[in-house]
Design goal:
disordered N terminus, 0% strand, mainly alpha, 17 helices, 78% helix
């Protein structure tokens, strides 16, 4: 029986009675029912496949470039190439997102793909041919600037394809996919580079990117906005959204600080073997926490969910700082708890960002979030590496909760405005 039939049946029941519809409504929902609801969204498996394919290339690109360039040049040059890639991508992401919102996504994505593949091929040829450092850095920047924004657009597609009940779960799933890709992507890139060829990771990235673009251009998404709907500031015209973006940058700064300070702590206290375990366990905790929150998307729906989760992250960072007073093993045991809400914060930031985005600017908003991720990550790595080296890793860890609480304070007033 369809939805209208259920309503009609319910309306014929005598007043004061408890009909089957009310009993069904009163029944408690299963813990994983939100994921079942998400799977019922038309085209779910296709969207999930595109989402997964879109996450691997960005997680592989940086390490692939580092390993390729370092074969014929110094590690300093290789690091500069990775930085040029990130700068090119971060500075142009909002523009690419705005173009997708304004024009047909097919045209923009195919144009970006053509530029990206061309820059990739030229970069490989220049590196293998012993080209100049300037040419390598320039092509790396072009690669980043022309990268098809598939992962960013996927979040816009999720906003378009889901409703209020399934959006939070979709964003949690998207965040867990990103966390998984950040673990598996570098491992795959390293294995391909060492076991097959330094060019092999670029071939894999190109195939995955082209496949994701091919699938995405045939997937229904939000219609292009009207030219008259534009404002000079674009998505930044929303004051609550600007606060949310600032909170996002501070949060990523704090997360990156953990990634930088924990290895320095392991080195200081003669536990270098724990370095990979620290970061791996943090990521696993993040993925599991994101999936868990996706199963109960309404848990914090009535309040400032993002700020509450940021406070939880600050508490986990405090626990890590306290664990350093005992032993490196104690820090390892606390790492899963510290990472538990990282993925959930990313998911809620994307959900809130879509809700706060001006009409017709969801993709641009997601691109701004991506750019602020890079800004926050670069700042966190530079600042906290310096503090850890000068003042010690324990002092640096004590400062991370302050950054997280600052993000929570900014995010407190950046609440969603859509029902």
């Amino acid at each position: 029986m369809g939805r209208s039939g259920s309503i009609s049946a319910a309306s014929t029941e005598p007043a004061g009675s408890t009909g089957p519809t009310e009993l069904l409504d009163a029944a408690p929902r299963r813990y994983l029912s939100s994921y079942h609801d998400l799977m019922d969204v038309p085209g779910f498996w296709r969207l999930a496949g595109i989402g997964l394919a879109s996450k691997l290339p960005p997680s592989m690109a940086g390490l692939s470039l580092l390993l390729l360039v370092s074969r014929n040049h110094s590690y300093g040059t290789a690091g500069l190439a990775v930085s040029a890639l990130a700068v090119g991508q971060g500075t142009t992401a909002p523009l690419r997102g705005r173009l997708i919102d304004r024009h047909a996504p097919r045209t923009v994505l195919l144009g970006c793909l053509a530029g990206y593949l061309t820059a990739t091929v030229l970069l490989v040829l220049v590196v293998r041919g012993g080209g100049s450092v300037a040419a390598i850095l320039g092509l790396a920047a072009v690669m980043g600037a022309s990268a098809p924004p598939v992962a960013v657009m996927m979040r816009s597609v999720w906003h378009h394809s889901t409703d209020t009940g399934t959006l939070a779960t979709a964003m949690a799933l998207d965040s867990s996919m990103m966390g998984t890709a950040l673990i598996t992507g570098p491992v795959l890139a390293s294995w391909l580079s060492s076991s097959v060829s330094p060019v092999a990771p670029f071939a894999a990235v190109a195939v995955l990117t082209a496949g994701a673009v091919g699938l995405l251009i045939s997937t229904p998404g939000p219609p292009p906005r009207s030219a008259r709907a534009g404002r000079r500031l674009g998505a930044l015209s929303s004051a609550p959204l600007r606060r949310l973006l600032a909170a996002d940058a501070l949060f990523v700064m704090a997360v990156t600080a953990l990634d930088v300070v924990l290895p320095i702590y392991a080195r200081e206290y003669h536990a270098a073997g724990f370095t990979g375990l620290y970061l791996g366990v943090l990521s696993i905790g993040s993925v599991l926490g994101s999936l868990a929150l996706g199963a109960v998307p309404n848990l914090l729906l009535a309040g400032p969910k993002t700020s509450v989760l940021l406070c939880g992250f600050a508490a986990g960072a405090v626990a890590l700082a306290l664990a350093t007073r005992w032993s490196p093993l104690a820090v390892l045991l606390v790492c899963p708890l510290a990472g538990l809400v990282i993925g959930s914060v990313f998911a809620t930031l994307r959900t809130a960002g879509g809700d706060l985005a001006p009409e017709g600017r969801v993709t641009e908003t997601m691109a701004w979030l991506s750019s602020l991720d890079m800004v926050g990550g670069a700042t966190g790595a530079a600042v906290f590496a310096y503090v850890a080296e000068v003042k010690g890793s324990r002092t640096a860890l004590l400062l991370i909760p302050a950054v997280a609480l600052s993000a929570a304070a900014l995010g407190w007033n950046a609440r969603t405005r859509k029902p």
